[in-house]
Amino acid sequence: MQNHTKMQNHTKPQKLAKIKTHTKKHFSFLKKLFSQKTSFYLIIMSGFSIFLSLSRIIYTGHAMYAFLLWNLFLAFIPFLIANLITFKKFKKQTEIFFLILWLIFFPNAPYILTDFIHLGKQPFAPRWFDLTLILSYGLTGLSFGFSSLQKIKIILQKRFPKIKINLLNAMILYISSYGIYLGRFLRWNSWDIISNFIPLMKDIFKTIACPLQNAAAWGFTFLFGTLLNLMFILLESISSGSNSSAV
Q1: pTM of this prediction?
Q2: Which end of the chain is more exposed for a tag (fewer CB within 10 A), N or C?
Q3: In sequence order, what are the residues at sequence separation of 6 or more whose Cβ sits closer than 8 angstroms to the Cβ of residue 83?
Q4: Phi/psi of residue 166, each to 5°?
Q5: Average pLDDT in the chain
Q6: Long-range contacts of 48-52 (CB under 8 A, 24+ apart)
């Protein structure tokens, strides 16, 4: 009985030490995450967007466009995952899992740009205000996405040549544009890949098997994907301060 009590007394400090270690690791990650200059500006932009939403609700008495808050949260997830992979040391299998998870949630970031489709459909507030509101959320979501893509690109550069990375980067943006089409026009969500896998795969198969009958899907994917690629290339050019000749 005494030995059992001693064993319990001995394991308690060990458990507490493990809890403290895990807590320190979590706080260390959060410190690294929010100490970045990019994170600071993204917090400011997110705060401004939320301020606009609250102002609209107070002014109109209606919670229209409140869905933008949820969309912004979904845009934050790939940013969080990319930082998690960057600052945490994972085993290869775990890292691949998080990269796949990042790819599934990444389309939610630029997706907010398509919320301009709602402009003018929601009454009670001036259109110029709603334009600013949606633009604020759209740019913030896109910034979350592009920031996460930059981090993923750095991670992949350790494993692949630069040419392959650029091609992979372009593919990611085109695949994401297809995902945005599935979300905006066919109303699928990221988590449907688990909860509604078979119906989702059926819709995907239809667009692939009958491309002419689903020209809108491929037209949107190509044009929106090209736009995202050009915007990302421009962003990287600006952030690197490159003024060299493009020719």
Answers
A1: 0.85
A2: C
A3: 29, 32, 33, 148, 151
A4: -65, -40
A5: 88
A6: 48/136, 49/133, 49/136, 49/137, 49/140, 52/129, 52/132, 52/133, 52/136
Both structure tokens of 245: 């000749």
Per 3-state DSSP, what percentage of the chain is helix, strand, and coil (rounded to 5)? 80, 0, 20
Closest to 80 in 3D by CA, of 29, 10, 11: 29
Residues 101-137: tens digit of each pLDDT: 999 999 999 999 999 999 988 778 999 999 999 999 9
Tokens 């688990």 correspond to what residue? 194
Q: Are 125 and 60 in contact (CB under 8 A)?
A: yes
Distance between CA 109 and CA 141 in Å, rounded? 5
Distance, CA of 233 to CA of 231 (rounded, Å): 6
Residue type, 217: A
Look at phi and psi of residue 148 and say left if phi exceeds 0, alpha if psi is from -120 to 50, else beta.
alpha
Instruction: Name the packing angle between helices 127-157 and 67-87 (round to 10°).
Output: 20
Supply the Cα-derived Rg of the chain in whole angstroms. Answer: 22
Contact assessment for residue 134 and residue 68, using Cβ atoms and an 8 Å cutoff? yes
Question: How many beta carbons lie within 10 A of that of residue 175, not counting itself?
Answer: 15
Position 2 scores a pLDDT of: 52
> Is the pLDDT higher at 244 or at 41?
41
Strands (DSSP E) found in the chain: none
The closest alpha carbon to 56, from 127, 121, 108, 7, belongs to 127
Cα(26)–Cα(200) distance, integer angstroms: 35
Please report, for residues 3, 4, 5, 17, the alpha-carbon distance to residue 13 in angstroms, rounded to integers and kept in the order given: 16, 15, 13, 6
Q: Which amino acid is located at 225 in the chain?
A: G
